[in-house]
Amino acid sequence: MDLGQLRTFGAVYRAGSLTAAATVLGITQPAVSVQVKALEERLGRPLFRRLPRGVAPTAFADELARRVGPHLDALAGVELELTREEFARTVRLGGPAEAMSVLVLPALSGLVRRGLRLRVGLGLADDLLVDLAEGRLDLVLSSVRPRRKGLVVTPLADEEFVLVAAAGAEFPDLAAAPMLAYAEELPMVRRYWRTVFGGPPPHNAAVVVPDLRGLLAAVLAGAGITVLPKYLCAAELESGELVLLHDPDEPPINTLYLATRSDQARLPHIRAVTETLTAAAKHW
Q1: Residue 52 has what pLDDT?
Q2: pLDDT of residue 4
């Protein structure tokens, strides 16, 4: 079998569409289609069912991917290793703006000094995971567990949520305090209230800011109360600028995951970033 056709098959299998595979491979969508058709003719079996959006593998394609996938990944790793350049390729890394700014970028500074070329994308987990699957990103820091096929997922750290207000702010009754939130649905606030207090938040948000750093600034100015990841406001809690409004025995937590496509997990530049972030996350 033609190695190029097998590589194209593997990219389509993992990405779930001809167009996404073309992006991963750096070739045109018609070229991907031609190579898949040629492989199907050589094998005498259909590999994919065309869907309104993307493709679905046949049972034969599942078996083929199981048997050849590890070997394709190993060959890709050898190809890069033979260049003797750990950072021969730019790493495209996506994640939430706050965690990337406070946790990830400082942790990768040493690799940058060693030659890592890094391009960062910011956004919501679901959108970033689509970009990962379709080849626009190489790694994603996700606040939700990625469940897409073809991904290698590493749990990094648990972020702890805290309920805070500015020191000196007078909010004796939490039910009457202005609530500051990341979104109208109050995702973190709602989770905190249900976990700690056993019910929904007492009222809707007075202020909605889709950036946790903006919420932190508003709380420090005395605008109201909010729920934040502890890593984001640890310095302000330590300095006394912020105070905990509640200190539960078991605070709500959320796991951060690092995901990459399985065809990239062994590549030197991806492995270096993954290992560095895994080590740094022990102290987050």
Answers
A1: 85
A2: 87
